[in-house]
Design goal:
By secondary structure, the chain is an alpha+beta fold. Helix content is 12%, strand content 22%. It is elongated and about 180 Å long. The chain starts with 8 loop residues before the first strand and ends with a strand.
Length: 342
């Protein structure tokens, strides 16, 4: 049965010629996963082994599941390889990640440690040898190995001195220690200036003098009571107001007002009584003092009536006039009476 569509697989090639003569070897190579694999993404469970049988040239090909296939559990599983060749048997473990490409040869894979039941690798154990000393899983370089590269120990000593030095490169005199939290600045004020920070950077938030206001400071709201400042609007103040600015009439100078000006109970004192004066109120005052009102009033002195032609008959009442030096009266009925002859 083929792999499910979308499964991450790699084609593994095997080439096992006989070292003497180069003819093809015979036998099989068995590949077994280290655990039963559950692929929830592709609804598959993988178990059992697969065999690659060498042909007459000692070559074989097999398609295997990549060991880092997405969604395949348990994580960290590996392939067990059992080479069963005439006169030779070999067993080891390999990783087969998808980053190797679509095709890879078995000879390119390095053996790895055996995974345990949870899918995690088991590190090697036991004493280390050769260029290493100590024991697995944490061996170190043997002294003889180190001596081959640094026989006099000069490099080791130089590294140790470099690590222990306070200023190994000679450039830490201008560096700031992170543990000092900027307390080692030569001048905090100069640093603030270079950062473009003003005096507010060093002030606390509050309402007292010398503090900066917070965004919800009650002094910044329209609801606060304004400070008395009428003196600033007076003449000579820092913010004087003119009569024109508030629609008032100036105390001196000519004024031009459109519309009707009404006084509640009296006319203000006028500068004089002159029929030729440009002020209309002054001319009216002259008329009022010179002529009788249309209704009522008392005449002081003589009344002069100029000669005129006979007037039209009034609709009501009567008309008094002088014609040819005679004082006459005409009623609404059209009757003319000579009051006084010429």
């Amino acid at each position: 049965m083929p792999f499910p569509s979308g499964a991450s697989t790699i084609t593994l090639t095997v080439n096992r010629p006989i070292p003497a003569g180069g003819s093809g070897n015979r036998g099989t190579v068995l590949f077994s996963p280290s655990a039963v694999l559950v692929d929830a993404a592709h609804h598959a469970i993988y178990s059992g082994a697969g065999t690659a049988t060498l042909d007459a040239t000692g070559a074989a090909t097999i398609v295997l599941l990549a060991t880092d296939s997405p969604g395949v559990l348990p994580a960290g599983w590996r392939w067990r390889v059992d080479e069963r060749l005439p006169g030779s048997r070999r067993t080891y473990w390999v990783d087969l990640p998808s980053s190797l490409g679509t095709t890879v040869d078995l000879a390119q894979l390095s053996p790895v440690s055996q995974p345990d039941g949870s899918g995690q690798s088991l590190p090697p154990t036991g004493p280390a040898g050769g260029a290493l000393s100590g024991s697995y899983p944490n061996p170190g370089l043997a002294a003889a190995t180190v001596a081959q590269f640094d026989a006099a120990g000069a490099a080791s000593s130089a590294v140790a001195a470099h690590v222990a030095a306070t200023d190994p490169h000679g450039d830490r005199a201008y560096a700031l220690a992170k543990t000092a939290n900027l307390s080692d600045l030569a001048s905090a004020a100069t640093a603030r200036t270079n950062l473009g920070l003003g005096t507010a950077a060093t002030r606390n938030v509050g309402t007292a003098a010398g503090m900066v206001a917070a965004g919800d400071d009650p002094r910044l709201t329209d609801a606060r009571s304004p400070t008395a400042h009428s003196a600033t609007h007076a003449s000579g103040g820092s913010d004087p107001l003119t009569p024109a600015a508030i629609g008032a009439v100036a105390l001196t100078g000519d004024q031009i007002k459109s519309g009707e000006l009404t006084f509640n109970d009296r006319i203000p004192v006028l500068p004089g009584f002159d029929p030729a004066f440009g002020n209309q109120a002054v001319r009216k005052a002259w008329v009022d003092s010179t002529f009788l009102p249309l209704a009522g009033g008392t005449l002081t002195g003589a009344l002069y009536l100029a000669n005129t032609a006979t007037p039209a008959t009034p609709a009501s009442g009567g008309v008094l006039w002088v014609e040819g030096g005679a004082l006459k009266y005409k009623s609404a009925a059209g009757t003319v009476t000579v009051v006084a002859p010429a």
